[in-house]
Amino acid sequence: MRLTFSTTPFHEIEADWLIVGAWENEVWQGALADLDRKLDGTLTRLRERGDIRGKAKELTPLYEVRGLKTPRLLVVGLGKRDKIDFAGLVDAGSAAARSITGKGTKRLAIAVPDGAPQLTVETAARAVGVGLWHGCEGPGLRKSKPDRFAPAEICLITSANATTSGLERAIHEAETESRAVSLARELVNLPPCELFPESFAERAREIAERTGLDCQILDENQLEGERMGALLAVARGSERPARLVVLRHHGQGNTLSLVGKGVTFDSGGLSLKTNEQMADMKCDMAGAAAVLAAMQAIAELKLPANVIGVMALVENLPSGKAMKLGDVLRARNGKTIEVLNTDAEGRLVLADALAYAVDQKADHLVNLATLTGACVVALGTEVAGLMGNNEAWSEQVLSAAKAAGEKAWPLPMFPHYSELIKSDIADIKNTGGTRYGGAISAAKFLEEFVGNVPWVHLDIAGPAWAERENAVLDAGGTGCFVRTLVELTRNYS
Ligand code: BES
Ligand code: MN
Ligand code: ZN
Question: 312 forms bridges with which residues in the sheet?
Fold first, then answer.
């Protein structure tokens, strides 16, 4: 699949499908009005009859339209013009692509909507490109008969008021970011018998070699040497050894460090989950997948910043060697942790990974983790919880998410929440001991390991995984927050 662009008039485009957007409560304007005239007013009649209303994600396929060189035309609703944002265009592209890629489509052409306030044509092209790309994807990796077919080419048709170099850049960015998101989705969807700490690390090594990132993989002995007692305690229950992957992208100025939770399967350990709770727990490495995917895109786009990606990879399983309730662990930074629930393993793994990132001289930290069910209770399945120790840095991450069209929302970090993780016998304990405020007590735990470095924690337990398909996305891994990390890095100095 590749993205291209063209300024050919719509009626002269040759493709399997031509996709055009319709604004709600507006008559056809500009190039679309020209198209309507070429079609003898067909589009206007459809609108007048109420068949095309332009409501967001409304889809109207038309076949064998006389006057077109494409055999099929798809009109996708964009909603109200003054409400449109980056996410709205991504969704419109995804919804359109999802509805037509069930059959063997080779070439899609889409009219990039222009005249969207707040968005340049280049930005709109990037949004539409990203959206179409994701709508063309299916998780049917392991199905013997695929039910979705990616087209070979997606052509973005743009008005003349964009520069060629600007569009080339937009397309390059859309393609690179889309491939990164696809990588994260693929990794999350891979079964845990195939994706485990060593195989994830191997995959990271290949990506690093291909893209020119420095790659360091710490095995269990090296992790011991690095005093990562908390991470190793989680890994101890499994036959599969832990790995810590460190990728480095060299640029200029300050160093941004991205840290991901990579629990390739979370059974809960001795605090075993129920079957229902465990069923989707291959998704518990979505944070690490997002970091790897973002590092790939950052390297390919040659972004100017210094970035370190740290991925903490373990399996959380019960066994005769597994950590027990009441165990006291010593983390890399010397703090002692009383284990009262082996299912609160993500914070143990991240404790050492964050302390390691701090020691690598990070100037700013962002960690991503499918950390708590409590965050999903608080914000629902589509919004990430954002917590941190520095307001300006939190704002910067929030605005990157906004620009990328991804949803994050701040949760408070008042000092009194730290009471929840006080232990009688160690420095801290790994659960709040109450369901209330569970997303925040987990964040307060992480805060113990970041020193004075400005840090943001994104709890992606909700948005990392889609239980059911919807109009814009397949079920399974979503690849969330990869584009936010790229956006953040693009503006980082
Ligand atoms: N990986 C889970 C969190 C999770 C829940 C991710 C649902 C995605 C969907 C995490 O390791 C966990 O088990 N957290 C516990 C913490 C508790 C024991 C303090 C939870 O949320 O129940
Ligand atoms: Mn767990
Ligand atoms: Zn977990």
Answer: 244, 261
Distance 182 CA to ligand 1 centre (A): 25
Are 449 and 301 in the same domain?
A: yes
Range of the domain at 463: 187-490
- Cα dist. 56→75, 207, 321 in Å? 11, 37, 54
pLDDT category at 115 given cuts 50, 70, 90 is confident
What are the tens digits of pLDDT across the range 177-190? 999 999 999 999 99
pLDDT at 145 over 90: no
CATH code, domain carrying 95: 3.40.220.10
Per-residue pLDDT tens for 255-312? 999 999 999 999 999 999 999 999 999 999 999 999 999 999 999 999 999 999 999 9
- Cβ–ligand 1 distance for 284 under 6 Å, the answer yes
Active site residue 347: yes
Determine which one of 47, 126, 347, 407 is catalytic: 347
Whether 57 maps to a domain, the answer reads yes
Same domain, 145 and 196: no
Q: Would you list the DSSP string of 7-41?
A: ---GGG--SSEEEEEEETT----HHHHHHHHHTTT
Whether residue 430 is found in the same domain as residue 349: yes
Please tell me if the CB atom of residue 460 comes closer than 6 angstroms to any atom of ligand 1: no
